[in-house]
């Protein structure tokens, strides 16, 4: 169990309506000694075992990658989320996010690792019977076995409920006979255990545990991929595959719970892995910029190179701030749980599901941050960025998958705004009264700007305006589209963009405030990020308002928009140079 | 048999070192266990695992932050740790007094210390401790084997290597090649939380450094920033040799 809990128990989605205080949130600076040591062990494993072996991993030497996974298992890195009675350690989620972050120095290995510990192992932890857990979990926690999760099919990825794989009970009632085909299954080429989703009698969505080698189960050829080439991705073919009835996972017809709840964890972990991947790509880029000379100077002395470095560093800072805040809040909620409750697994999932919006935000924001960062770091390398001799090229290719799996970013954006609105309708989130208050306030004339003081005054003001902007836009859009709002996907996604920026910006501000002025760089990065985030929010709000109104109505609303978005600009050029200088000096991402 | 294994904290080799007020700025550096000392910890653990030693005690001398390094040693597998607390930077000779006193108090049979320290680069500590205790010492070892109270081993010489044999108690300094130090595993990190780190304040009179560091400066190596196109490996090889010979002048 986590020993240090600074985060207060909070309600999912509440970041929009309530103003959290710095002491309410968890930050990386709050890590316990134990968490730091586990992070250090993971870092050493990454630096000494993964980095020097990337060519072998990338050559699809799966025997080697498997052995490396096993080594990670021997270090205990695969047992963080597994209960003690099944060979695990059952530590907090911050620790498991830290491991995902530190191990992410190579996209291929990181995907193999996460597919195993996340979607591969968690369904069993949560839904397995005592017998199933005894049988499989110790082998998965030690890395002796590798796990794989097979949900997607050629004709249904996002639309996962529509899978065609069928299961039928055998006449003697002892087996389910599965038929169908799965697509893009991570780890398939080296897995020992598959969690396969199928519909019993074409109706009841269910999950099955299938061991490799089961007659009727075959693994197809490796896909040739843009990136993460050293990870295994294959189709699975089930043809009259006989699965013992004891291997039905969870209840027949309840497989969608397994599929969806596992995704929440997958999403915040993808967020932390993206932050980890960003750090290594950044280090490579900054070091290159220090060494490379052009026009007689190191390219790191050029403002435009510094700008890419500052953007990237700030992305890492913001990503870390948001990821550990959310995961810390999840831990606080889990720590407050009554462990003797009748079904602790179910309660755990419920508590994590409470943060579904936050998990989706981390997934979307961090994957897009990483994509921008690897693009900038490749650009810093110039022509050398485009050739395979330098790691920038691989990072660039490896990053791209993150916007596709664990729910595409489009699907996740729809979840973010959809979930908030649904909660509001159910009366579980006081969104409607808040919208009403903001609408009354802005429509009744000039908006009083909240007085903010201190170094982060401008950032604070932007955050306050951003929250109001989100509520105002949600109000305008619901008035205009009513119950069909969900069909206006572009509006929903723009709304999601404002929510995303609100959470990430607030996390930066709170983390920096929690440091109480002990460090200068976080202040600079928060101010720099605020300016960027506010721009995103403004554009998204314009998209929403102009789609929701026209003529005089639109003019009135744009007047409100301008009042809400009035702000003093930050000198991002000076801030960017300050941030870049520190990074270039350190030769990596730093906060000192 | 009880083994004391010394643990020192040095800036991470991966990090950029800064100088502040004439001193290496340790406050802003990431500090790690000196790799040289890790070989000693690893060797002690192996002896214990082979049933040749009963207890491995990690010893650190320094300020509060020293505890991080000791916790790493415990997480690697040391049984307990002793932290001699002091804010004073001790030179190897003064430090050797502290270690020798502890070795007597703990009735140690074997002391491991890194052959040199990554920060000071002095090779004096092991020898000074042996001298104070009047024990034999083996330096720069890269292979060790224990039979009863006889320690056999090997160390490198300029043109080859030497094997040796000595009776315990003894002081042994370690170096790269002796073994492959383990990482602390997650279960061991959790177990280490329950292990003891005994803190003993250092009596100011018991060890006074005579040699004081009065200033530091960092040499910045200018790089040549040359990247050879590796498409034609043979040509690149020839070009590299030519550059190493005529430009860098590091080969003949
Ligand atoms: C390398 C790799 C590894 C993978 N690993 C696994 C694994 O281990 N297990 C597993 O089960 N799956 C895995 N997948 C599958 C992955 O989860 C799916 O590819 C993903 O969910 C998208 O589904 P799809 O490919 O069918 O795309 P589609 O659903 O066809 O989507 C195509 C496009 O349409 C958009 N779109 C779809 N529906 C909507 C909508 N309702 N509204 C708006 N836009 C929409 C999408 O955002 C996307 O841009 C993996 C995929 C890859 C490439």
Report on this model:
The complex is a heterodimer of chains A (592) and B (252). Chain A is of the alpha+beta class and 592 residues long. Chain A has helices at 33-50, 54-58, 62-74, 93-102, 107-120, 122-127, 130-142, 255-291, 303-335, 344-353, 356-380, 391-399, 409-425, 431-443, 457-481, 489-514, 521-548, 551-565, 572-586, and strands spanning 147-150, 166-169, 175-186, 193-200, 204-211, 217-219, 233-244, 248-249, 293-294, 297-298. Among the domains of chain A are: 147-255, Butyryl-CoA Dehydrogenase, subunit A, domain 2; 412-586, Butyryl-CoA Dehydrogenase, subunit A, domain 3. Chain A is built from 19 helices and 10 strands. In chain A, the strands form 2 sheets. In chain A, strands 1, 2, 3, 4, 5, 6, 7 and 8 form an 8-stranded mixed beta sheet that branches. Residues 1-7 of chain A have low confidence and may be disordered. Chain B is an alpha/beta fold. Chain B has 2 domains: 2-201, 3-Layer(aba) Sandwich (Rossmann fold), CATH 3.40.50.620; 221-252, no CATH class. Helices cover 28% and strands 28% of the residues of chain B. Chain B has 6 helices and 13 strands. Chain B has helices spanning 35-49, 66-76, 92-105, 125-133, 186-192, 233-247; strands at 2-6, 9-11, 19-20, 23-24, 31-33, 55-62, 80-85, 110-114, 137-147, 150-157, 160-167, 170-174, 197-201. Chain B has a 9-stranded mixed beta sheet, sandwiched between helices. A two-stranded antiparallel sheet of chain B has the order 2-5. In chain B, helix 2 (66-76) links the parallel strand 6 (55-62) and strand 7. In chain B, helix 3 crosses helix 4. The model of chain B has no long low-confidence stretch (mean pLDDT 88). The chains are: A alpha+beta (592), B alpha/beta (252). The A-B interface holds A 33-34, 37-38, 40-41, 44-45, 74-77, 79-80, 89, 91, 291-293, 384, 389, 585-587, 592 and B 15-16, 28, 68, 71-72, 75, 183-190, 192-193, 223, 225, 227, 230.
